[in-house]
Specification:
- The complex is a heterodimer of chains A (114) and B (113).
- Chain A is mostly beta strands and 114 residues long.
- In chain A, strands 2, 4, 5, 6, 9, 10 and 11 form a 7-stranded mixed beta sheet that branches. In chain A, strands 1-3-8-7 form a 4-stranded antiparallel beta sheet, with no helix packed on it.
- In chain A, a hairpin with a 2-residue loop joins strand 5 and strand 6.
- Helix content of chain B is 0%, strand content 54%.
- Chain B is globular and about 45 Å long.
- In chain B, 35% of the residues are buried.
- Classes of the chains: A mainly beta (114), B mainly beta (113).
- Chains A and B meet through strand 4, strand 5, strand 9 and strand 10 of A and strand 4, strand 5 and strand 10 of B.
């Protein structure tokens, strides 16, 4: 079974621009979570989607948004980029069924804001 | 909200020795505790997990223990090998906050031959 895929793997943007990152979950997984990873703050939860609905949201400003499509693929968008948004953005998928809690991560998208 | 503390931040061990990483959590409603291994340039890889109704779980050289009363859980790696070198993260979650994991700060493990 193919793992979680994320595109693009690397991205360089300028302050003030906006960016869209994509995540394809493991086949059959209906939940997608997004995390931001930085050396200073570690892994921080952004939001989680299940069946096209956002179920949980972390403590990030409204510039960070996401969505999920009917095939469970998810995108996250960051508008008006700031230097501090430079990070590794990880998505994780989960079966989210019965007692299946495991989350499996993709390789991440490395975003650099200049 | 949930807060997870992880110690130590770095751990250097000789090949063949054991490594232990400890985490404490604050939310007593947390009921699922996974451990991840992250190698350079890769995403975190789930290596073992434990649920709140279990005290210990083993998978070959890796084991996790959970003390619900003290709100701490630990990862034990026995007979360490150079390929065990990586950053290890603990996490805690509660099933009514589905998909939202609170992660520890990570432990850099270096196994020297």
């Amino acid at each position: 079974k193919a793992g979680v895929t994320q595109t693009p793997r690397y991205l360089i943007k300028t302050r003030g621009q906006q960016v869209t990152l994509s995540c394809s979950p493991i086949s059959g997984h209906r939940s997608v979570s997004w995390y931001q990873q930085t050396p200073g703050q570690g892994l921080q939860f952004l939001f989680e989607y299940f069946s096209e609905t956002q179920r949980n949201k972390g403590n990030f400003p409204g510039r960070f948004s996401g969505r999920q499509f009917s095939n469970s693929r998810s995108e996250m968008n960051v508008s008006t980029l700031e230097l501090g948004d430079s990070a590794l953005y990880l998505c994780a998928s989960s079966l989210a069924w019965a007692s299946s809690y495991e989350q499996y991560f993709g390789p991440g998208t490395r975003l650099t804001v200049t | 909200g949930e807060n997870v503390e992880q110690h130590p931040s770095t751990l250097s061990v000789q090949e063949g020795d054991s490594a232990v990483i400890k985490c404490t959590y604050s939310d007593s409603a947390s009921n699922y505790f996974p451990w991840y291994k992250q190698e350079l340039g890769k995403g975190p890889q789930l290596i073992i997990d434990i649920r709140s109704n279990v005290g210990e779980k083993k998978d070959q050289r890796i084991a996790v223990t959970l003390n619900k009363t003290a709100k701490h859980f630990s990862l034990h790696i026995t007979e360490t090998q150079p390929e065990d070198s990586a950053v290890y993260f603990c996490a805690a979650s509660r099933t009514d906050s589905w998909g939202k994991f609170q992660f520890g700060a990570g432990t850099q493990v270096v196994v020297t031959p």
